[in-house]
From TrEMBL, chains A, B:
Catalytic activity: (2S)-2-phospholactate + GTP + H(+) = (2S)-lactyl-2-diphospho-5'-guanosine + diphosphate
Native organism: Natronobacterium haloterrestre (Halobiforma haloterrestris)
Family statement drawn from the similarity comment of this UniProt entry: Belongs to the CofC family.
The protein, known as: 2-phospho-L-lactate guanylyltransferase
InterPro entries for this protein: CofC, Nucleotide-diphossugar_trans
Molecular function terms, GO-annotated: GTP binding; phospholactate guanylyltransferase activity
Gene: cofC
């Protein structure tokens, strides 16, 4: 399956600026991309990932993190040779829609998986790929769309606002069947400091966790609520 | 299956105090309970729910909300006659552990489902009930434990802190198999204003949504991020 992985290469993850420097945000964004590509590669099906980056990107440095994975949340290091990088500086919606044009035009299906799904596992991605619907959507927390599979040639995305609801409407409008995927792992995009808790709780390996540990983050539960603290 | 539904009857949902009055918080807590009980009743298996309430509770008033459900996110109104209420003012961990004693002592399994899982659907709960593991856990966002099924007589809960990780350790310590359930619906307990977005996005019917609409809440997407606004 063709899989588009949009990646914001410049000034990524601004909502983490309270806890991470600009350089660290750039590093962790690449670590998350490495984990997503690793999880895609470890699924049972033949994935052909294309990273659609807003700026030139060296995959060899992005994927340099050691991925000490286990069976529970494993994403083995991705093989760079299987990954294509395309630079496209258009807004996300336009860049994705350009790739959806290939559906029906040679491709049976195109998947779009966000690069910040640091909790994604092969099993969670299989649940995205499996349903035989025209459109399969993994909603993100907050009404977004974190991952989808498009098998209908007329379906186009619109990532602005509550895109999950918009994508339901767009599918209904063209008579396309839509199936949601109920996954906490795919619903969790790493945008804010509270999201880092999810990485430390739900990943026992992977580049993103390794990166957070290297930066000195650990879980903090002293006041009864779970947060991250940095030494 | 025996299902324990712990319910904080007095001063519930204090983290919603910025957007809801004390009386409204009490009303919405009961609406969420009604949705959870309705979803349990609509699963394929014979559920015997016991609401373990910190104070006396009138189920007939708690379940009075009109549940205008649909097939996608439906939780038909629960039948009060099938639900038992027990008052237990001990801390959550103690109240739940007292009920887990029945595992191996007559019961094959006891499930514990939090009363604030307003997104729970019959399908999501089936995924909790289905795995044949000694302990099945649906983690909550932030490291908590939102729902579990216990089939091992020695397993006991500890809800303090990052309880999902603690429950994994407790299971490992007694040689019990543990299977996590990857569900956004079960991971989403309604604690904070941002969680109300999830109700309005993912429920098209149900008591909790009806309650929020009655209070004048709607989705607000004008600044690109999705929040709730109150008229």
């Amino acid at each position: 399956m063709q899989v588009v992985v949009p990646f914001a290469a410049t000034s990524p993850k601004t909502r983490l600026e309270g806890v991470l420097s600009s350089e660290e945000r750039s590093t962790i964004a690449r670590a998350m991309l490495a984990d997503v590509l690793g999880a895609l590669e470890a699924t049972d099906r033949e994935c052909e990932p294309t990273v659609v980056s807003t700026a030139p990107l060296s995959l060899s440095s992005a994927l340099a993190f050691d991925s000490d994975s286990d069976s529970d949340s494993g994403s083995p290091a991705a093989d760079i040779d299987d990954v294509t990088v395309e630079v496209d500086d258009r807004p996300l919606t336009d860049a994705v829609n350009a790739r959806l044009e290939s559906v029906g035009d040679g491709s049976d299906a195109v998947a779009v998986v966000m690069a910040d799904l640091a909790l994604a596992t092969p099993a969670a991605l299989e649940r995205l790929f499996e349903p035989d619907a025209d459109v399969v959507v993994a909603p993100g927390r907050g009404g977004g769309t974190n991952a989808l599979v498009v098998r209908h040639p007329e379906f186009r995305v619109d990532y602005h606002g509550a895109s999950y609801l918009d994508h339901r409407e767009i599918a209904a409008g063209i008579g396309a069947t839509l199936e949601p995927v109920d996954s906490h792992r795919l619903a969790t995009d790493i945008d804010e400091p509270a999201d880092l808790v999810e990485v430390l709780v739900h990943r026992s390996g992977g580049s993103t966790r390794a990166c957070l540990c290297e930066f000195g983050f650990e879980l903090e539960t002293s006041d009864g609520r779970v947060t991250v603290a940095r030494d």
